[in-house]
Amino acid sequence: MTQNGFAGDLRRQAGWLPASQDALEDWLAGHRRRVEAKGHDIELHPAVVDFQRLIATDPVVGMYVSRMIAQVPETRSYSKRHLENPDQMLRLINEVLTMAPEFGDQNVTLPLGAILDWTMGTSAGFAAFRDPRVNAALKKILTAWCDYLNSPESLYVLNDSPSGWMSETARRAIGIEQYEHDTADPHWGFTSWNDFFTRRFRDGVRPVAAPDDDDVIVAACESTPFSIRTDVKRRDEFWLKTQPYSLEDMLANDEAVEEFVGGTVYQAFLSATNYHRWHSPVAGTIVRAFLVEGTYYSEADSLGSDAVEPTHSQAYLAHVAARAVFLIQADNPAIGLVGFVPVGMSEVSSCLIDPRIESGHHVSKGEELGHFQFGGSTHCLVFGPGVIGDFAMTAIPHPHDPNAPLVLVRSRLATVAPKAAPAA
């Protein structure tokens, strides 16, 4: 019926960084040359200056950052060192703030993640990226980059060159014909990179499965299944290698946690070319919807060498990363309360809740709830005990299949368990 465990062979599977380590290092070397060619007198963005000041004035942060660059990562296999010191790292980060992601199997869709990749695989890096001061500084940098990605200047990557998002290869990878776009406009009618990233499907492209059957639960995101866990606990040691779900931590100690104890958590991740808007899995009433501050580049160090790719840390990240939490009281009493947790991974600038969504608002099954702005992302759906009868075959994780089927948003995800008839 359901499957415990998580997909284990996901290195670079989400398409955010190159599959080839050599390609990643080539990009880093090229990026470093671009920055060095500008000399040491480049003006740093105020958000980068703030991080520089924090490193210089806070002895603990300064120690973390210096050591995570000096240490050789145990969970990465680099041919040479690309980072030398904090100031050089900051200049490399600063350059990204006026860049937009390019397309291509060997291109870097997460440039900040590429720069920090070395540091994320060190013991000091594991500690640094859990530090609230470091994450507050990173949030300022990500917000600054998001401002650029929301600007018309970021449209330069929407072109038909091999690394452009309008190339024939990119068109096929995206399936652009499924999305609203203006073929007569030089940039398909999009106003910025983020406008393109959060593109909408054309009417009728993703119909709601069984719209009149409240026993059918639909997919909240267009995504690849990662994990299905049953009999989840109120509190568990989510930082362990097995990454069990801890409801109190994932749901930010919300008062509704008790309703999910012993229930089911389904988790799936979004790839770089996927649709990045969220939709309600059920018809029901919004009880609460709120944002939770958290980490951006933290990884589960308990995974050892498997921590090489943030996708492996998804269950861990559902407890510590910046995220949103939705609690929806389903119209179907057999479903009861449903939790939906969209989680920002790596470069995600923000989780944006649709302004219509507030306590007491009734949503139809498949109605839009919000979206991710640019960045890697995953999400969880949380159900109470005995709610799920079975999951659709496409929703079952395929741990070692790099071509695992995609769960289409608003398609059938699961069916409610039949209730026993009352005794005669």
Verbal overview:
- The chain has a domain at 216-416.
- Helices cover 26% and strands 17% of the residues.
- It has helices spanning 21-37, 46-57, 59-70, 86-96, 111-120, 123-128, 132-149, 168-174, 193-197, 247-250, 314-320; strands at residues 216-218, 224-230, 264-270, 277-279, 284-292, 323-330, 337-345, 351-353, 362-363, 368-372, 376-383, 388-391, 412-416.
- It starts with 20 loop residues before the first helix and ends in an 8-residue tail after the last strand.
- The model is unreliable at 1-14 and 420-424 (pLDDT under 50).
Biggest sheet, in brief?
Answer: 7 strands, antiparallel
- Terminal CA distance: 29 Å
What's the overall average pLDDT, rounded? 87
SSE series: HHHHHHHHHEEHEEEHEEEEEEEE
Structural class: alpha+beta
| Fraction of residues in helix | 25-40%
Based on Cα principal axes, name the global outline.
globular
Strand order of the largest sheet: 2-3-11-7-6-5-9
Give me the count of strands: 13
Radius of gyration, Cα only, in angstroms?
21 Å
Number of helices: 11
Beta-strand percentage range: 15-25%
Report the uncertain regions. Answer: 1-14, 420-424
